[in-house]
Task: inverse folding
């Protein structure tokens, strides 16, 4: 087990799913952004860092049929499976580090809420983005939620990066077109407020929707 996997296993072992700071009862914003892509219900959707999230189960309930969840630790995936009770066999589960994993297929949509902002070094960011570019199909959708400009600089004992839309656009470079971005305040189970930046990009060059 890598140091990062051991760290997150410890987090999920010490806390119930409803106690981790990024927990949300319903992934409302993520679902709305996925629906806004107007992808067909058989589109291949990947949820990166999906532990404790009910997103996969909600997608299946909304008629999507090809959903994959990746997380770095079994402990997180076990929580996600509990959220998906009754439909977990219809979801593909992958235990892996997104920075190094070789996916056996490509996807129409890559969703990440609260993983990328832990990529604080250039090496980690570059590794993440290289896998993203190998895995997301041309014209595929990227829905990325990170800490915003006024978000916390540390979470779960680790340093984090904070972003605005232009800084993410610079990282993605000309490979992606910006579709939408917006800030949202997340209230943690402990009662603290965290600023999140939600963004929607499409891989390739596309006209500005505005």
Result:
């Amino acid at each position: 087990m890598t140091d990062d996997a051991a760290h997150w296993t410890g987090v999920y072992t010490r806390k119930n799913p409803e106690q981790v700071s990024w927990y949300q009862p319903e992934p409302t914003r993520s679902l709305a952004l996925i629906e806004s892509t107007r992808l067909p219900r058989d589109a291949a959707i990947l949820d990166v860092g999906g532990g404790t999230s009910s997103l996969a189960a909600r997608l299946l309930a909304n008629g999507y049929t090809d959903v994959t969840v990746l997380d770095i630790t079994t402990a997180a995936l076990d929580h996600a499976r509990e959220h998906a009770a009754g439909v977990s066999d219809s979801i593909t589960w992958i235990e892996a580090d997104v920075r190094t994993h070789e996916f056996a297929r490509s996807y129409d949509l890559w969703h990440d809420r609260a993983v990328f902002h832990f990529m604080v070094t250039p090496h980690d960011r570059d590794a993440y983005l290289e896998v993203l570019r190998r895995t997301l199909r041309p014209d595929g959708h990227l829905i990325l939620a990170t800490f915003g400009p006024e978000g916390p600089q540390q979470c779960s004992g680790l340093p984090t990066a904070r972003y605005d839309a232009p800084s993410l656009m610079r990282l993605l470079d000309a490979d992606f077109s910006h579709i939408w971005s917006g800030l949202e305040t997340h209230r943690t189970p402990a009662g603290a407020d965290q600023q999140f930046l939600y963004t929607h990009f499409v891989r390739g060059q596309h006209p500005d929707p505005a």
